[in-house]
């Protein structure tokens, strides 16, 4: 009895110390950055609500980093440029990130996020990378967008010549479209993903690998009913085998055959063998994540060490 009374006191003591330390040093709670997907913007209700909710649930400050004007540029600005802008904004504009931060990527935003991790010169360290429906191994067709004039134009451009300089310069998704039957065209013409994945034999850069493999955790979330990403397994680095449209190789099997993993071009194998990659498969359509899955797969990585310790101390006394 006596001991069960003294523990909450101890707990309150910890909270006070913790709060004081956090207020004084502001290093307790690592902030996070959200990169939104295509046809979206930071000011959109969905992105705003998502960022706020994560902040509410974790106590960590969240920032949605906008690139260009949002919707338009998410469609038409090549990802190498988007990455450069994100890097400048993250590094130079948000001083709160200077001690390090976490990234939450939504769909195409994962390309920007990973670009920042690998390419950003002198950027603050990225600790945890939480990827929701990221086209990490490429996509084989344009994200579905309906029958508006924009989509008709986009579809026309893609079919015309996805790896031409013109399309590469004017259409964001072309930065990560990987036609399984045109790997040669992809490696030569695609300006972003082959660089990001260190796929070009004579252009592999160990700095990208070093930076990527220094992540503390990489959480890859695939949506089981994802109809936007083709194939959805790209969220886990799974893809079609080179030269064929046949069955998609799920992440683990794809690894056996892909040199990106076996030769560890970007450090995915290093991270995986250190137990730092979480391959998650959740039920739902593209980016339709349930509150309970947010709690299970996102929140724990946005809390920092101190608050996790605190949660452990607090847990046995729940319900008393
Ligand atoms: C966050 O918490 C505040 C205050 O507790 C509340 O008013 C707000 O609705 C919450 N926002 C979300 C997105 O949960
Ligand atoms: C690799 O990337 C780093 C960082 O961007 C750059 O400084 C370096 O010159 C690159 N190395 C090669 C061989 O391209
Ligand atoms: C995802 O999980 C569901 C339910 O557990 C399972 O039926 C399905 O095969 C899994 N999909 C993949 C690609 O692993």
Automatic annotation (TrEMBL):
Keywords: Hydrolase. It comes from Camellia sinensis (Tea plant). GO terms for molecular function: thiolester hydrolase activity. InterPro entries: AB_hydrolase_fold (IPR029058). It comes from the Eukaryota. This is Palmitoyl-protein thioesterase 1. The lineage of its organism: Eukaryota, Viridiplantae, Streptophyta, Embryophyta, Tracheophyta. The keyword Hydrolase applies.
């Amino acid at each position: 009895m006596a001991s069960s009374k003294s523990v909450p006191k101890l707990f309150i003591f910890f909270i006070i110390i913790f709060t004081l330390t956090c207020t004084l040093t502001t290093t307790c709670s690592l902030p996070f950055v959200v990169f939104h997907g295509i046809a979206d913007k930071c000011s959109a209700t969905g992105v705003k609500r998502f960022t706020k909710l994560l902040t509410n649930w974790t106590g960590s400050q969240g920032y949605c980093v906008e690139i260009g004007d949002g919707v338009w540029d998410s469609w038409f600005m090549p990802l190498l440029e988007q990455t450069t802008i994100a890097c400048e904004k993250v590094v130079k504009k948000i001083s709160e990130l200077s001690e390090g931060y976490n990234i939450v990527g939504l769909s195409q935003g994962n390309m920007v996020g990973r670009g920042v991790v690998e390419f950003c010169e002198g950027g603050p360290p990225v600790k945890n990378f939480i990827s929701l429906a990221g086209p990490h191994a490429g996509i084989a067709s344009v994200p579905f967008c309906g029958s508006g004039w924009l989509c008709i134009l986009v579809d026309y451009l893609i079919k015309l010549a996805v790896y031409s300089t013109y399309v590469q310069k004017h259409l964001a998704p072309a930065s990560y479209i990987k036609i399984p039957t045109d790997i040669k065209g992809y490696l030569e013409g695609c300006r972003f993903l082959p660089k990001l994945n260190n796929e070009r034999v004579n252009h592999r850069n160990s700095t990208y690998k070093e930076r990527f493999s220094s992540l503390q955790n990489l959480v890859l979330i695939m949506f089981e009913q994802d109809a936007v990403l083709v194939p959805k397994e790209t969220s886990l680095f799974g893809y079609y085998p080179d030269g064929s449209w046949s069955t998609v190789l799920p992440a683990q099997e794809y690894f056996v055959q892909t040199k990106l993993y076996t030769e560890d071009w970007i450090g995915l194998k290093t991270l995986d063998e250190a137990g730092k990659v979480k391959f998650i498969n959740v039920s739902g359509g593209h980016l339709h994540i349930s509150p309970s899955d947010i709690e299970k797969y996102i929140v724990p990585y946005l809390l920092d060490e101190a608050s996790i310790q605190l949660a452990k101390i607090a847990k046995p006394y729940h319900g008393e």
